[in-house]
Amino acid sequence: MNILKKSYLIIIAVGVLILIFFGSSMFFTIQPGERAIIFRPFGDGLDKENIFVPGFHVVAPWNDLIVYDVKEQQREETMDVLDKNGLSVNVDVSVRFNPIYDKIGTLHEVFGTRYIDQLIIPEVRSMVRQVAGRYTAEEIYSTKRSEVEQAIIDETKIILEKNNIDMRALLIRSINLPDQIRVAIENKLKTEQEALAYQFRLTREESEAERKRIEAEGIANYNQIINSSLTDKILKQRGIEATLELSKSPNAKVVVVGSGKDGMPLILGNN
């Protein structure tokens, strides 16, 4: 009985020693916004399929639990790129991203925990340079800035997604040119805007002149038609009708038919 009791005590003591020496490498709490994978050096190596989610986990002390921060992160980069004519353009960008949760095993196998320095930053810089090289400094700075920005976003998102990164946003915060080039571009744009404004005013005045010409032609044609249709007989008839209407007023008057000029009626005795 004493031997059995001693055996129990030995087992308990060994267990306590294991907890003391290996407890920190056996018990893990994965926090919200984290995921983990396990590496078994004496087993099948890196387990890319089973992803540990937030919570408490027990792992054999000889295995490695690798924890990844999968919350959205941001990095900012300032770089000098060349336009299609070889002119240097300074671009300041920021990118927001996070690892794809269920792909951190593959991400770790290829890039490791330093994937930001090994993957994110190099690819962002590469895409900015590639896209900028297809445009002139003027297009990047002003005339096609939105198009350039969208091309960088689309192409960067594709390459990062292929490498198990979800790119949430990419912003071009600023584009800077050498002062001499910037002033030249701004002056050119100002001149072009003034020319467009002048052309608009000229076109508007030409349209107004054409409208007035058409209106004048219409009035002239109308008068010509009226004049050609008003014969002496029609004029006399209209005069008689107007005179008769006037004679119906309550004021006393005398109408002498055929006594006026050209045989038109006269109204006498207005009171």
From TrEMBL:
Localization (cell): Membrane
Annotated GO biological process: mitochondrion organization
Keyword Iron-sulfur: no
Transmembrane feature ranges: 7-30
GO cellular component, one term: membrane
UniProt topology in membrane: Single-pass membrane protein
Pfam family, one: Band_7
Domain of life, per lineage: Bacteria
Keyword Manganese annotated: no
Ranges where the Band domain occurs: 25-189
Keywords: Membrane, Transmembrane, Transmembrane helix
Name of the protein in question: SPFH domain-containing protein
Organism, as annotated: Mangrovibacterium marinum
